[in-house]
Specification:
Number of helices: 12
Helix content: 10-25%
Radius of gyration: 20 Å
Distance between the termini: 25 Å
Shape: globular
Order of helices and strands: EEEHEEEHEEEHHEHEHEHEHEHEHEHEH
Structural class: alpha/beta
C-alpha cells in the first residue's frame, strides 16, 4: 500500500471526502504536492457542486477511487507560483475546472482540446503524472499546473463564476463548435437546471432566439421572465410540440435522465443539430428515419479545452453572465447533495470554502 493521504505530499490540506459508495462526505485530512516550477497554488474560496459529483461519490459510473474529494468548479486566490510560471502571480483570482493534466502531444492536445486527450487527468479521483490520486475542490487549497488554471477577470464575483468552469463551458463549447451562436438563429435548451440556465444566458448573449423545453410547466415564468428566454415549450404537451416542429436550428440537450429523442429531432429544421451534453446512465433510443428525412445531426460535447474555457470566462465577464447560486457552508454538503439528487436547487450549490471549511483535529 502507498502512504496515507496526509503523508503523500509536503503541503497539508483539509477537505470533505466520501470513503465508500454510500457517498456520505466527512472531514478529511490529506496533502497536496509542493509547488512545482510550473505550478500555481491557491487558497480555495468557493467550489460549485456539480451533478457529476453526485454520480462519482456513489461510484455510479464505475471509475471512482476512494477516498474521493469531489469538486471541479474551483475558484480562489493565488498564494504561491513556481519559478517558471508566467501567467499568474500571488494575489490573482483563478479557477480550476474539470481537468488538471493531459499528454500535451496527441492530436487533441495539439489543437487546444485537452478535454478529448486519451490521457486527460480529471481534477479528482484520477491518477496524476506522479501516480498519486487527484483530489478536488471541496478542500482548502489547490495546486495545479498553470496550463490548467483559468484567470478570473477583476470585478467578477468568485462564487457565481465557479459553476461556469464546468456548467458554463459545457454549454458554451457546443454553441460555438456546432455554429449555434449566430444572431437570429433559433436554439432550444432542454432542461432548466444547472446546465440549462447558463445555456439560456450564453445563447441570449450571442444574440440567439432561445426556447426552453421542459417537462415542468411551472418553470415557464422563471425561464421567460427571469432568465430571458424568448419562449417555452412543455415537452409533454403534444399540441405545443407539434406547433413548434421544424422551427429550430439547433438544440442543446442538458438532461441526464433517460428521455425520448424523437420529439426533439422533430423540432429541428432540415440540417438542424441536436447536441447532447447530459449523460444518462442507460442508452437512449435513436430512430434513423427522422435524421435521414432532414439531414439532421445528433452530436455530443464534453466541457472544452483550456483556451476555450478562458474565452468563455472572459465572454461571461464581458456580458455579466453568472450562475444562479445558493451558497452553503461546508457542513451542509451532504444535505445539498441529497437536494441536488431531487433537483431541489436553483440552480447550483456553491460551497463557501474560505469561511466555513475549518480543519478539525
Amino acid at each position: 500500500m502507498g502512504q496515507a493521504p496526509e503523508q503523500e505530499h509536503p503541503k497539508s490540506a483539509f477537505g470533505w471526502a466520501a470513503r465508500d459508495t454510500s457517498g456520505v462526505l466527512s472531514p478529511f485530512h490529506f496533502s497536496r504536492r509542493a509547488t512545482g516550477e510550473k505550478d500555481v497554488t491557491f487558497k480555495v474560496t468557493h467550489c460549485g457542486i456539480c451533478h457529476s459529483d453526485l454520480h462519482m461519490i456513489k461510484n455510479e459510473w464505475g471509475n471512482t477511487i476512494y477516498p474521493i474529494v469531489p469538486g471541479h468548479e474551483i475558484v480562489g486566490v493565488v498564494t504561491e507560483v513556481g519559478s517558471k510560471v508566467s501567467k499568474f502571480k500571488v494575489g490573482d483570482k483563478v479557477g480550476v475546472g474539470c481537468m488538471v493534466g493531459s499528454c500535451h502531444s496527441c492530436d487533441s492536445c495539439a489543437i487546444d482540446l485537452e478535454n478529448y486527450c486519451p490521457k486527460v487527468i480529471m481534477t479528482y479521483a484520477n491518477k496524476y503524472h506522479d501516480g498519486t490520486i487527484t483530489y478536488g475542490g471541496y478542500s482548502d487549497i489547490m495546486v495545479a499546473d498553470e496550463h490548467f488554471v483559468i484567470r478570473i477577470p477583476e470585478g467578477t464575483p468568485l462564487d457565481a463564476t465557479a459553476p461556469l468552469l464546468c456548467a458554463g463551458i459545457t454549454v458554451y463549447s457546443p454553441l460555438r463548435f456546432y455554429g449555434l451562436d449566430k444572431p437570429g438563429m433559433h436554439v432550444g435548451v432542454v432542461g432548466l437546471g444547472g446546465l440549462g440556465h447558463v445555456a439560456v444566458k450564453f445563447a441570449k448573449a450571442m444574440g440567439v432566439k432561445v426556447t426552453v423545453i421542459s417537462t415542468s410547466p411551472s418553470k415557464k415564468s422563471e425561464a421567460v421572465e427571469r432568465l430571458g428566454a424568448d419562449s417555452f415549450l412543455v415537452s409533454r404537451d403534444q399540441d405545443e410540440m407539434q406547433a413548434a416542429m421544424g422551427t429550430m436550428d439547433g438544440i442543446i440537450d442538458t438532461v441526464s435522465a433517460v428521455h425520448p429523442l424523437m420529439p426533439l429531432i422533430g423540432l429541428l429544421k432540415s440540417q438542424g443539430k441536436l447536441v447532447l451534453v447530459g449523460a444518462p446512465e442507460k442508452p437512449l433510443e435513436l430512430p434513423a428515419f427522422p435524421l435521414l428525412m432532414g439531414r439532421k445531426i445528433v452530436g455530443g460535447s464534453m466541457i472544452g479545452g483550456m483556451k476555450e474555457t478562458q474565452e468563455m470566462i472572459d465572454f461571461a465577464a464581458k456580458h455579466n453572465i453568472r450562475a444562479d447560486i445558493e451558497v452553503i457552508p461546508a457542513d451542509y454538503v451532504n444535505t445539498a447533495l441529497e437536494r441536488l439528487a431531487k433537483a431541489d436547487v436553483r440552480y447550483r450549490f456553491v460551497i463557501d470554502v474560505a469561511n466555513t471549511m475549518k480543519s478539525t483535529p
